[in-house]
Design brief:
two-stranded antiparallel ribbon; 6 helices; single chain
């Protein structure tokens, strides 16, 4: 149940980030996908990611996982709350900057363009950066071996798999334009050199 401030803050932040994602997910269903490269393994990873996101909600709303609690100082939880806000902003910004070019799967729409402006001017995969920051924030806010770590253990393999597939598709589609872009931007964090 809501027996710690961090459960309450996490739940509120989770609802906000879910609303952001749902808004853009609903928008993207209005346009046809021309290139669909999703695989059964990708769908499996998406389902596992969903479970990793839902376990903390179960933890927050019930006391069934409290047996796996541990102690961390409050300042770590508050730092996690701030990181989660950063994740929300990055997720919002990446969706807003991609606009109609965002697709939940590895694929492309007709007249798909390579977006290299906004947050994409600095990093190629800000949505994954947002999810990884969210997963780290979750560990810091939910001091529970199951709920705290449920997302981070699934997002890392998903990121490794998805980025490879996306970068292959973008390289095939945009060729040299993508290679130039990839060489001057970081994958998750801006390149400073």
């Amino acid at each position: 149940m809501f027996n710690t401030i961090f459960k309450i803050v996490y739940f509120v932040e989770f609802v906000i980030i879910s609303v952001i994602r749902k808004y853009y997910t609903n928008k993207q269903h209005k346009e046809k996908i021309d290139i669909d490269k999703k695989t059964g393994f990708e769908i499996f990873l998406l389902i596992i990611n969903g479970i990793g996101m839902i376990i903390p909600v179960f933890y927050v709303l019930t006391s069934r996982l409290d047996f796996a609690n541990y102690y961390l100082p409050d300042w770590i939880g508050w730092l996690g709350a701030v990181l989660f806000i950063d994740a929300m902003w990055i997720l919002y910004k990446s969706h807003a900057d991609l606009g109609r070019h965002w697709i939940a799967i590895v694929g492309m729409r007709e007249n798909h363009k390579l977006v290299t402006t906004g947050i994409y001017k600095y990093i190629r995969h800000p949505m994954y950066a947002a999810h990884i920051i969210w997963a780290i924030a979750q560990v810091m806010m939910l001091h529970n071996w199951i709920a705290g770590y449920s997302f981070i253990v699934v997002i890392i393999p998903f990121y490794i798999y998805r980025v490879k597939k996306e970068e292959e598709m973008l390289s095939e589609t945009f060729g040299e334009e993508y290679e130039i872009y990839r060489n001057k931007t970081g994958a998750l964090f801006p390149k400073f050199l």
